[in-house]
């Protein structure tokens, strides 16, 4: 029996590993571009600039493509030296944005090559509306937490809402600014609890046990590519585990375009051989789509078109978490020197618990104090001339931070993917997305609560940065669980094709606020574990 | 020292030094080179400044001006080129290890508070100086408004020959800066490659090679590139040749000069106004002319149907003929040049008359007779330097004058008056003045 998993990211790696554990032969098809190794472990970000032959080209791009212009809403662009991200100029890209501007990757390991490492699990409240119970997911979560080491506290104020997280590593070291904020939090806790707000240590898929050779050495280069491989990356661990099985075959250089079907069963795969640029077909007996919700949706639509079924060629949904950043100045931090070494991503998280129907009760946020970004976009955003902005920025740098809130999403009419036949070798996919009007009230109320909380924490909130749709990089819901031909059943099996399994976020029928990577891995594990092959 | 291609966006080393002094940074040659490359691409990445913003961007950046503009642009004009310049300077210095350490050095503890308070007081003081300065700038801008020239080439296509140097190069840069797509003609592949390497990669320039001394090559190159004549909004056949120090009886040089300076332009105008007109053809072509036959090695004419179909056509086309003030008088050592320019001026006027007589409203013809300005064809004497009009200024006036439909332009006008004055004094005076002039080395 030929079982093919499509996609080499988190979902594909965990689906493949689970199938291998079941004793099956597994092929994993992937475009599989490789990112170069990150040099000079141990060197901190700012010291690293001295070692780079051309730091400007490395950090901003030889064509300055990563230099953020003034008045641009972005505060950060992935450095051009990170090759895991695909650009819309990529001939394989295939998406046409209509209010939704996605990130994509054709690298082995997918978007997890550059994820923020926040490892959380969905609870019963997050899963309300799913045809899957918390206990069904829990077994898969436990497997995933055995595969992925997570650093975090045994117990803190957020534990009641993050019970599904099973830390196995000590928490990531806090910066002195984080420590100051936590002290303010403990002092103002009674008031903050009234507004439903809790702060705790981040749960991060990072190796922190100092005795290990691959433990985080706090070099402040997470964004630029962890040179110690301390941050979980499916390419380095889960896929490596798969490769230990003799029944596993990793097949790079294949962009899957569509599945071929006969009598409502998948019997082949149409793909682009990226080396020869030929579009070819091969037979298969079962397929697990795990190419990421956007690519999975695109493959599913092309499959429907090829099958000439009487269904409209757009997906059931398209979701992403909305991202809102609230910058702040921590008044107690002014004049303090910055830490010499630090973990670059957020070390603290924030949870807001309140009844907000139809949204989950838990709203997730990350608190980040600046350590080692490129600061010029922040300097340009200050409301003074550049000379004074630069002076003030560096005088206050240790006091500067931002709360990032991730707003949940649900399937809404009009937010979907649709095939566009634009004369290319295969159909492109339009990504239509409009923010739901009722979400706006939820966003405003939540932002207002966080702003008030920041005042209690002796922080001065300043401004608001709302990212465009697609910036959350938590894509989901293109082939969701539920009833209907373009959905899948609770086991992830397509309602149309019984030997097709939706093993990634495409199957999520709603999108909670919490980071989804661990849930992607758990879903893929569960689907692969119970698939009837 | 490289001169900025787009002075509105790029800065020269002295301006870079002034900006670094303003920001409290140490200039670095390597970072300046990278900034230079970044800003060269800026006109094609970011919105073009217009109106008052453009007015403020035109002057050279000094320490005083940077301090005022930094505040003004931050508060009122966020897309002003200076914002991109300052943002770029901070970005490239931040990427540099030493640059970052320098910019991030800041006081700690109580000194940080004092630094912040001091900075805010300084900001108030800066504001108190800058607001009146801004008022003065605004007044200057308003008073010059009646004399403001149009600069509307955004999205249009300009065709310019001789773009690898001199006035042609400045015309190309001017058109690019104003948002045009440029089709540039150069004489040989070497010039094309050198120019391509100098221009930013995102500059919308198509460079074609045509040796204008060979009949038919320009039109052949355009047809081979499938350029639709009707897509051209501004055409400036600017390439010229001047053989100095030759006897007025040197027929080969005279022929070569007339071929480049006159006949290639007549051929080009025929292509532009004849085959490509969206209106009914203003000119009836006599295809029996031997001159219409392609020369050896020249590809046959491409049928009109084969040219760019999707290209948006221009409603009007401004044809600019670059003559010279030398056309008003003879000159013993550059006789061919002056004679060809005289012929070009007269031919241009005739072309304009014929177009008007035929009722074509699509084309305007502007005959430009530039006087003395900095170009490879003029001598760099101290007096000349004092009297020179800036070449980029001349280019700017040519473009805006052509777009405004002016029939003739003679920048700088004082030089035209001087030339006419000398001519009116009679041949004896003219002879005594001009016969003293000495030839330069031959140039083509």
Q: In a few lines, what is going on in this structure?
A:
The complex is a heterodimer of chains A (533) and B (444). Chain A has helices at 10-21, 45-51, 55-60, 134-147, 176-187, 189-194, 238-243, 293-307, 376-381, 386-396, 437-456, 517-530, and strands spanning 3-6, 26-29, 85-86, 95-98, 104-105, 197-201, 248-251, 254-262, 265-273, 278-283, 286-289, 322-330, 348-353, 362-369, 400-407, 409-410, 416-420, 428-432, 459-461, 465-466, 500-502, 510-511. By secondary structure, chain A is an alpha+beta fold.
- The H/E string of chain B reads HHHHHHHEHEHEHEHEHEHHEHH
Continuous helix count of chain B:
16
Quaternary class: heterodimer
Annotated CATH topology of the largest domain in chain B: Rossmann fold
For the termini of chain A, the CA-CA separation is: 9 Å
Largest sheet of chain A: 7 strands, antiparallel
Q: How confident is the prediction overall: mean pLDDT of chain A?
A: 93
Strand content of chain A: 15-25%
Could you estimate the helical fraction of the residues of chain B in percent?
A: 40-55%
- Structural class by sheet pairing and helices of chain B: alpha/beta
Roughly how many Å apart are the termini of chain B?
25 Å
Query: How big a fraction of the residues of chain B is strand?
Result: 5-15%
Overall geometric form of chain B: elongated
What is the mean predicted local confidence, pLDDT of chain B?
85
Q: Please give the number of β-strands of chain A.
A: 22
């Amino acid at each position: 029996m030929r079982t093919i998993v499509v996609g080499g990211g988190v979902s594909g790696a965990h689906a493949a590993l689970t199938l291998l554990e079941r004793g099956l032969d597994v092929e994993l098809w992937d475009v599989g571009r490789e990112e170069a190794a990150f040099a000079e472990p141990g060197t901190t970000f700012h010291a690293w600039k001295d070692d780079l032959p051309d730091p400007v080209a490395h950090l901003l791009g030889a064509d300055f493509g990563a230099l953020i212009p003034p008045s641009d809403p972005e505060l950060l662009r992935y450095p051009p030296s990170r090759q895991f991200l695909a650009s819309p100029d990529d001939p394989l890209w295939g998406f046409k944005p209509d209010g939704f501007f996605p990130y994509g990757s054709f690298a082995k390991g997918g978007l997890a090559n550059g994820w923020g490492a926040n490892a959380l699990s969905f609870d019963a409240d997050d899963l309300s509306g799913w045809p899957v119970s918390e206990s069904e997911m829990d077994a898969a979560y436990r497997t995933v937490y055995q595969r992925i080491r997570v650093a975090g506290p045994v117990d803190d104020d957020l534990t009641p809402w993050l019970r599904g997280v099973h830390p196995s590593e000590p928490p990531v070291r806090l910066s002195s600014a984080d420590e100051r904020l936590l002290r303010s939090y403990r002092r103002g806790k009674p008031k903050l609890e009234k507004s439903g707000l809790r702060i705790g240590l981040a749960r991060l898929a990072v190796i922190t046990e100092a005795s290990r050779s691959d433990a985080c050495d706090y070099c402040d280069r997470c964004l630029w590519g962890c040179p110690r491989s301390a941050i979980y990356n499916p390419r380095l661990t889960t896929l490596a585990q798969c490769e230990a099985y003799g029944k596993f075959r990793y097949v790079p250089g294949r962009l899957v375009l569509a599945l071929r079907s006969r009598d409502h069963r998948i019997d082949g795969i149409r793909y682009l051989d990226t080396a020869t640029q030929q579009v070819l077909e091969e037979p298969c007996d079962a397929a697990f789509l795990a190419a990421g919700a956007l690519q999975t949706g695109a493959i599913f639509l092309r499959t429907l078109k090829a099958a000439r079924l009487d269904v409209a060629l757009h997906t059931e949904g398209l979701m992403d978490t909305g991202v809102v950043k609230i910058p702040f100045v921590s008044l107690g931090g002014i004049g303090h020197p910055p830490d010499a070494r630090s973990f670059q991503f957020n070390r603290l998280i924030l949870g807001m618990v309140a009844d907000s129907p139809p949204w989950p009760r838990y709203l997730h946020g990350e608190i980040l104090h600046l350590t080692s970004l490129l600061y010029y976009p922040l300097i340009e955003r200050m409301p003074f001339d550049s000379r004074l902005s630069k002076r003030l920025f560096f005088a206050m740098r240790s006091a500067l931070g931002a709360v990032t809130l991730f707003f949940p999403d649900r399937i809404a009419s009009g937010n979907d993917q649709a095939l566009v036949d634009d004369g290319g070798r295969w159909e492109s996919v339009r990504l239509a997305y409009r923010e739901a009007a009722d979400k706006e009230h939820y966003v405003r109320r939540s932002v207002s609560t966080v702003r008030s909380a920041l005042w209690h924490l002796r922080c001065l909130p300043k401004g608001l940065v709302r990212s465009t749709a697609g910036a959350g990089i938590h894509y989901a819901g293109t082939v969701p669980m539920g009833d209907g031909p373009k959905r899948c059943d609770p086991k992830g099996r397509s309602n149309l094709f019984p030997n097709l399994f939706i093993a990634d976020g495409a199957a999520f029928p709603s999108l909670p606020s919490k980071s989804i990577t661990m849930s992607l891995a758990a879903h893929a594990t569960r689907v692969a574990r119970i698939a009837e092959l | 020292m490289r001169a900025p291609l787009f002075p509105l966006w790029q800065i020269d080393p002295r301006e870079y030094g002034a900006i670094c002094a303003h920001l409290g940074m140490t200039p670095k040659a390597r970072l300046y080179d990278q900034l230079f490359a970044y800003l060269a691409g800026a006109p094609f990445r970011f919105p073009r400044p217009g109106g008052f913003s453009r007015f403020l961007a035109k002057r050279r950046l000094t320490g005083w001006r940077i301090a005022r503009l930094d505040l003004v642009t931050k508060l009122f004009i966020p897309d002003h080129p200076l914002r991109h310049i300052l943002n770029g300077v901070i970005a490239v210095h931040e990427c540099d290890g030493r640059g970052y350490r320098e910019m991030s050095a800041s006081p700690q503890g109580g000194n940080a508070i004092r630094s912040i308070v001091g900075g805010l007081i300084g900001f108030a003081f800066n504001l108190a100086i800058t607001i009146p300065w801004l008022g003065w700038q605004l007044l200057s801008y308003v008073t010059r408004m009646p004399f403001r020239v149009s600069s509307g080439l955004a999205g249009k296509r300009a065709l310019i020959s001789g773009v690898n140097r001199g006035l042609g190069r400045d015309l190309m840069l001017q058109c690019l800066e104003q948002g045009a797509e440029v089709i540039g003609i150069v004489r040989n592949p070497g010039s094309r490659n050198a120019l391509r390497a100098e221009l930013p990669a995102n500059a919308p320039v198509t460079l074609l090679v045509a040796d204008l001394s060979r009949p038919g090559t320009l039109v052949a190159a355009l047809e081979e590139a499938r350029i639709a004549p009707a897509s051209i909004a501004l055409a400036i056949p600017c390439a010229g040749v001047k053989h100095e120090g030759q006897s007025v009886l040197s027929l080969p040089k005279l022929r070569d000069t007339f071929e480049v300076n006159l006949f290639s332009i007549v051929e080009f105008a025929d292509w532009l106004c004849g085959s490509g007109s969206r209106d009914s053809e203003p000119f009836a072509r006599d295809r029996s002319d031997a001159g219409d036959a392609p020369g050896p090695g020249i590809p046959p004419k491409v049928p009109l149907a084969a040219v760019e179909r999707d290209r948006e056509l221009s409603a009007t086309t401004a044809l600019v003929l670059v003559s010279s003030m030398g056309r008003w008088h003879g000159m013993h050592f550059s006789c061919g040049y002056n004679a060809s320019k005289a012929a070009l001026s007269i031919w241009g006027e005739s072309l304009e008359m014929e177009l008007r007589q035929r009722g074509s409203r699509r084309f305007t013809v502007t005959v430009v007779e530039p006087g003395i300005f900095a170009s490879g064809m003029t001598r760099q004497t101290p007096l000349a330097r004092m009297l020179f009009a800036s070449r980029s200024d001349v280019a700017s006036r040519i473009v805006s004058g052509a777009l405004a439909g002016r029939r003739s332009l003679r920048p700088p006008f004082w030089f035209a008056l001087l030339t006419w004055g000398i001519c009116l004094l009679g041949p004896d005076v003219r002879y005594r003045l001009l016969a003293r002039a000495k030839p330069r080395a031959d140039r083509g």
